[in-house]
Fold this sequence. Notes:
- The protein has 1 helix and 10 strands, in the order αββββββββββ.
- It is α+β, with helices and mostly antiparallel strands.
Amino acid sequence: MQVDVDANRVSHRRPRAFAVLFGVVALMGALCAGATTAAAQPAPTGFGARVVTVGMVEFRLEQPAWLPPGRYTFHAVNAGRAPHALEISGPGVGDVRTPVVQSGGAADLTVTLGPGVYDFWCPVGNHRQQGMQLYVRVG
């Protein structure tokens, strides 16, 4: 009988050990996912506006598609060959834009974004129709 009792103890320990191991793996996965999400967030500046770099390349915008509400300075960098600009429209933001930026140049655009969906696009020529447009969800 002693052997059976020890066998039962061992069998009870295995599920418990498995549950602990599973919990540790799940926690590590959650922490890693949180770190990835945090890295994608824009960096706050000392003046209350977060700076987000927007890459403008033929024919796309490279930036996060989700942002928390707040004040932002969009640093629009023309990494393409053609001239580009950045225009934003959405709740409380009415068609604000940067000047046209030549290849290798940059311009800043500061706006406050509340919850909602915002339309980001390049207003130069037919660049929007060629794919330089992105909906950004805020909140």
